[in-house]
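Assemble and predict.
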Amino acid sequence: MIEGYWHPKGSAERFVATFEINDLGRYAIVLEDKTAHRGDASSLKVSERLGNVARKIILEDGSTFSTLDNDGIDTLFKGRQKVNAVIHYMETHYRAVIVAFILSIATAFSFFKWGIPWTSTQIAHALPYETNNLIAKGSMKFLDKVMFEESTLSEDTKEKIRLHFNEKLSKLSIEDESEIVYKLHFRSWIMDGTEIPNALALPSGDIVVTDKFLQIAANQDEIDAVLLHEMGHVVHRHGLEMLIEGTFITVAVMMMTGDTSGMGDMGVGLGSALVSSSYSRGHESEADLYAFKKMLKVGIDPKSFSNIMARMTTYMTEDYSRKEKGEDDEFLDYFSSHPTTQKRIDLANRYSECFAQGLTTCK
Amino acid sequence: MEALRFNGTGSEYFKIWIVNILLTIITLGIYYPWAKVRNRRYFYANSTLADRNFEYHATGKQLLLGFIIGVILFAIYTFVTQVAPQYALGFMAFFMLLLPWLIWRSLMFNMKVSSFSNVHFSFRGALKTSYKIFLGYPLLILLIIAGTGILASVVIPPLESQEIDPTIITIIGIIVGIIMMALYLYAIVLIQKKSKEYMIGNSFYGQGAFSTNLETKKFLAIYGKGVGLALIPLVVMIGGLTLGDENSLEAEILFIVGYVGLIVVSLLAGAYIMSRTRAYVYKNTLLDDRVAFKSTLGARALAWVMFTNFLMILVTIGFAMPWAKVRMAKLMLENTLVDTSIGFDEYITQQQQSGGAIGEQIGEAFDVDMDVGF
């Protein structure tokens, strides 16, 4: 027998009452003055258990019986609230909490590490090609305004490189995605008085090479290697992928931090930021792979790529770092955020061996 | 007068809290509305007055649709602002237009799904009033700021060209600045007061109506004192910056002292404004013209709990959050007094038509705090 209060429907008035269910599945609520409410127990609605807060039974006529005897209710209505029973079990057993804790770390990690990149790739490639142009719109103008200066190369030199690019490289992309229209731009990039060697690609197919990069490159093969790498970024729609990933991460972090049920209380946001830095690294390897494959096709030694990368890194660390660079320039520094890792060098060497054997594909 | 009580404990809530987080992560967020319901239910049901408890009746299913719409809207917003930041302003304007509706909607929903001793609350304010308070007045503030800015740009340059002593121009500038700040403060206070009146004055408990009678003057006094307090370290900081050589040791020390002071003092000022307005509003609120309320919450007690909670959460990288929340709930409730002599038994609820929680969840996705709270 459970003790509690009976409330008439929608009324604050309450009466001390008892509740029980007999063997036939009939319930009886008996008030102190012996008036009783009876009926079939299956018609009752029972509120879900939460800690030890008052539990409520709603009768068919809308009147309610409330009690603090949670265990008593659980015994009487055993098997009726299976989902809630599981949640309540977790909420009262530390062992279940620990299991769930490990599970959720695994889920969160997999979600950020694989779930978001995979989904972003799928979405990026499902979107129409024009999206790439849309997101790159205005970028070139912006970069010209804040970063680049005019190239000091002669028109002849530019034209020569362009011609070579159009004839040898940009054709290669036809087999991947015919809609891309590549366009080569020549610029000078000076930061703190140092000329920066770099090449970068916009999602629209605009590829920018800096004067210093062309100057550092030892031969045409090295230039081609880097250009193919940039084309890899465009073909794989990395710009769009980054945007979609960024959106996912922001939404996920918002859900964790901007709420009332306490997800953000745990500093999960920080973890996601750490994981997300590896995204761009994955993109670099993907672009490398694209470049190496194409290089075998057109007969360029993939070694050229690691050579030019190594030379640019050396230049940046020796020449550029000697001058004091400000903290806020760091994020622009391509080489510190994308170091030439051993993994990338290994891949280049493997493809270089294939090249040496005269192969056009490499396993 | 009898104080409310909070019967929950940190250790009990910790387990509910952590299971909520874990299930939300494992389900990639889908569980979120249900987690929210469990949190709310825990705090409502553990709040009691005269041995009767509050209840939160919303279900996860009710909150789900609004939650999904909110997340999708936020995702679109994030994506668009990354691609084309120039549209962010348009989004903000759209959101400002939507906000009064969201507030109105979530007030209705939240009151409807809350009950005390089996009798539900309700909110019957007009949408029009919500637009006046949460769109009309903020626009007025914008106009004031823009107006003063234009005025300054028109008045000051001719003065400068007439070779008037620069100190006079500076003094004029400072006076204009002070007038502008005073106007701004006045507008903020007015919005605060109007929104309190709107929220309380249109709320019902069963058939009993809440009523409140507030004076802008009293609000201004409280806010003026609070803001004045917060300004002191700011002045010290600016002093540190302008005091001769910006690299000098004295300037740096003044700046640091000002900075630390700013954090401490703004906490105190915030607690002061919050507790005093609370006390003033409660004192002037009646239910059914008979039931009186009172807040005994002090500024120092509030600041202390806020500060120690902050430290606790910081040290435990967030795991102390359940205890912090329980502490805060205890402090708030135990300092809320209600005249119970009238008895509750006569309150019969009036049934309201039902509706969803879209407003409430969209609002939450954009992190708008719309808690009415007791």
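The mean pLDDT of chain A is 80.
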